[in-house]
Every structure is written in C-alpha cells, then in structure tokens.
Amino acid sequence: MKKYSIVIAGGGSTFTPGVALMLLDNKDRFPIRQLKFYDNDEKRQEPIAKACEILIKEKAPDVAFSYTTNPEEAFTDIDFCMAHIRVGKYAMRELDEKIPLKYGVLGQETCGPGGIAYGMRSIGGILELLDYMEQYSPDAWMLNYSNPAAIVAEATRRLRPDSKILNICDMPIDLEEKMANMCGLKSRKEMSVRYFGLNHFGWWSHIYDKDGNDLMPTIKKHMEQHGFALATSEFNQHVEPSWNDTFVKARDVYKVDPEHIPNSYLKYYLFPDYVVEHSNPEYTRANEVMDYREKNVFEECHRIIDKGTAEGTTFEADAHASYIVDLATAIAENTKERMLLIVPNEGSIANFDPEAMVEIPCIVGKNGFEKITIGNIPRFQKGLMEQQVAVEKLVVEAWIEGSYQKLWQAITLSKTVPSASVAKQILDDLIEANKDYWPELK
Ligand code: NAD
Ligand code: G6P
Ligand code: MN
After folding, report:
1. Where does ligand 1 bind, in terms of residues with CB under 6 Å?
2. Is there a domain that residue 194 lies in?
C-alpha cells in the first residue's frame, strides 16, 4: 500500500490534535509517511505542534512530522491538504455573533449575517491555500471543512473551477449516528440514506438499513417526541448545553415538515425569533468555545510539552474526524464509499439551479466523486433553498466585485433578517469590524 503525505492547514486549530490522532489510529487503512502542520499564525500553532510532535514520536515514530508557517515547505510533496482554517479566529467569530444580536438578529458562526461576515473573510484564505497546493503539489487533493463551507464551496466553484477540492461537513454524520442509535444500530454505516439540500440546510428523505428496510418510521417517532435529543453518538464534539438545546429544538423543526428529517441547523432559519430570545448578547457560543474547548486544548498541549511526554493525555482520536479519514481513504484506496459532499448541482436535483452548490450523496473514489440523482424536491424545501442559495451567491459576487450593494442584498435576503434597514445597520457595523479582512466595498 502506498504511504501518503499530508498537510493539515490551520495547524493551530483546536481540532488538530483530534484529527492527528484519528489519522494515526487509522494507519492500517490509510497509511501515512509524513504529517505536516501549516498555519499563518506561528505563535498559535507552536504549542499544538510541539505537543503533537511528542505524541507522534511516542505513538508512531515512523511518521515524519514537521510544522511551518512557510507555504512552500508546507505544500511541497503532499498528497492531501486537510484544511480547517478560521480566518480572523475566535475574536472575529465573537463579533460575527454579537453584532447582529445588537439589532435583534441571531448571531451564529455559519448562519445569517455572522456566517456571511465569516464567508467574506474565508474566501481569500481558502483560495490562497488552493493556490499554494496547485503551485507546489498540483496532484494533491484538498479536503476542506473550513467554514462557512457553503460560501467557500460557491467561491471555489466560481473562482477555481478546476481545483481538486472536496468540501464536506460533519453535522449530518453526527445526526446520522444519532438516528442509527434511535434504530438500535451500532453505526450510521449500517444505514443507507438519501439527503438533499445546501450545507447546514438539508433534509433526509429516505433512510434504510442494510437489507433495505425502511427506518424512517422509527426515526420519525423519536423526532416527534424528542428531536435529536436522547439519542447518543460517539461524537465528542457536540456535547455542551447549547448543543443539547439545538437537538431538543429539532423536534419543532421536524414538525414543520414531518415527511423529512431536518438538519439541526434549520433551527436558525425556521425559528430565528426563538434563537434570539434564547441568546445572551454578552456571552455567545464563541465565548463558550474560548472558555472551554480552546482553553482545554491549549492547557493540555502545555502539560504535554512541560512533561516531555504524552503519557496519560486527555487527547483522543476525535470521532468528529473519522469522516475525514473515510474521505481520504475513499480517494486514496478507491473505496467508492457513499458520502455526503457539497458539489455543483448540475441536474442532480432536477428542479433546482444547476449552478448551485448542493449537499447530496456522492460515490467517492480515486478520480473524485460521482453524484447520486435526487430528482425533484418538494416546494417547501425548494423555496427555502432558492432564497438561501441566492444569499450565498450574492456574498461571493460581493467579494469578487467589492460590491456593497450586493452584500446588503445578501443580508437583506437572509431569512434570519427582518428588513433591509436592519440589514444595512448590521452591514455597516460588520464592515467596520472586518476592515482588516474584507475587500474594500464600494
Ligand atoms: P481555530 O481558530 O482554533 O483554528 C483555526 C486556525 O486557522 C488558527 O490556528 C488560525 O491561525 C488558522 N488560520 C486562520 N487563517 C489562516 C490562513 N489564511 N492560513 C493558514 N491558517 C490560518 O478554529 P476551530 O474552532 O478549531 O475551527 C477550525 C475550522 O474548522 C473552522 O473553520 C470551523 O468552522 C471548521 N469546522 C468545520 C466543521 C464542518 O463540519 N465542516 C466541523 C468543525 C469545525
Ligand atoms: C458542527 C458543524 C460545523 C461547525 C461546528 C461548530 O460540527 O458541522 O460546521 O463549525 O458545528 O462547532 P463549535 O463547537 O465551534 O460551535
Ligand atoms: Mn458543518
């Protein structure tokens, strides 16, 4: 079996240790010879990299490890780039969440005005990574899960249409684990699903077990009573009280269309008033993440570095990262695994914009992906998706053209925003906050 060389871009991410450990745990199906970390913030990356260096030396001394802020070093001689960057880091996420809340609009990492602001920052960062990869390792694949994935995917479709990038999200995976649990199955891999939508904006229409038996009646019964709550999954990520609230609220989201199982992110579009009422404008999810995940990850890194050993570490292979290994293995070993990807529609959803980036099941192998045909989707979903996809396209056009008008239209069109005047107030604040990151808007 060939051994692969990987660069993790966003080496300073809180998810890096979990991803690295998941890679080491799966060396038998996805063999690696080299692992590199790349970040544009040397200070942030260093503790994570130094701790992982110790961990890798102890767990897999055969894997060559290095870390750098030099793009040439990072992107030379690689087969895969696993990208999870956050342009502007948590400081900007906090503003994305708090600025809309000032005007009574929800503040969320990837949805509504906050997601739009984050998109305007991410596009340039991802294009830069793609260009480095193209320059130094043109045959490599980028597996991207940097957010907001919907906007990033639309931007790369428009601006780098031939690039070898696959955009993917872990939310459906966690929710599928929960649904498998509702049905008494051990893993989502015992199910076959049909799903359609946009990233953080989709629905399951059919779910079968391995023998083709319909699992929807059991899942629907659970959704009606509990949403996604009371169903477990191996994920060690979506565990805090704010996530539990999202899983409970999925019960109400489900009731809006009991024929389909909704992605939990639809809460933000179907119940924005509820979300605002349950938000604290002084303390948002960014604060929670900084106070818990970020603090814990960096403390653990410093502990490992000080002791000079990773023995007894609390870091564990991140269940959240298993889909990344599945995707890499599908390409490397041509497994033809069926996975949800964010891809150009091009007729897969028959009654929807062929130029939209949609999230649908694909068969993944050595030469990329083949899409599963969905056919026509119902009017309710189609209406919601047309509005949302227009938002995402307007953001990308605003970024390309430096257009204030288009970004104002994008925020106005978001289902989370009540009027063009509120949209304008939020936009003007976001422009001020993002002046180091956004292109200048005219
Ligand atoms: P984080 O802030 O801890 O880490 C991001 C890292 O990216 C930082 O070290 C930062 O310095 C670095 N970075 C920023 N801009 C960069 C650039 N232009 N080039 C190189 N490095 C850059 O963030 P996190 O909470 O660990 O999340 C990382 C990313 O993963 C986010 O985009 C998040 O939304 C995403 N994520 C996606 C999914 C999914 O389902 N797709 C799941 C989990 C996390
Ligand atoms: C889910 C989504 C990701 C998102 C993450 C936010 O996993 O699929 O796209 O980034 O949640 O998690 P956080 O813990 O940072 O709020
Ligand atoms: Mn996601």
Report:
1. 9-10, 12-15, 39-41, 44-45, 84-87, 89-90, 125, 128, 145-147, 149, 169-171
2. yes
The secondary structure of residue 164, as a DSSP letter, is -
199 is in an annotated binding site: no
Q: Which residue has the tokens 């990233």?
A: 199
314-363, pLDDT tens digit by residue?
999 887 788 999 999 999 999 999 999 999 999 999 999 999 999 999 99
* Whether the predicted interface score ipTM is above 0.85: yes
Please indicate if the annotation marks 200 as binding a ligand. Answer: yes
The atom of ligand 2 lying closest to the CA of 320 is 7
| Beta-bridge mates of residue 8 | 37, 82
Rounded distance between C-alpha atoms, residue 442 and residue 300, angstroms? 45
Would you say residue 115 lies in a domain?
yes
**Number of structural domains found in the chain:** 2
Domain interval for residue 220: 173-278
Residue 113, pLDDT above cutoff 90: yes
- The yes-or-no answer on residue 170 being catalytic is yes
Which listed residue (170, 174, 318, 429) is catalytic? 170
Ligand 2 atom 11: residue of nearest CA: 171
For residue 261, list its beta bridge partners: 204
Residue 426 inside a domain? The answer is: no
289-310 mean pLDDT: 97
The answer, yes or no, to whether the previous bond of 148 is cis (omega within 30 of 0) is yes
pTM of the model as a whole? 0.97
Radius of gyration of the chain (CA): 21
Q: Is 302 annotated as a binding residue?
A: no
| Residues 189-204: tens digit of each pLDDT | 999 999 999 999 999 9
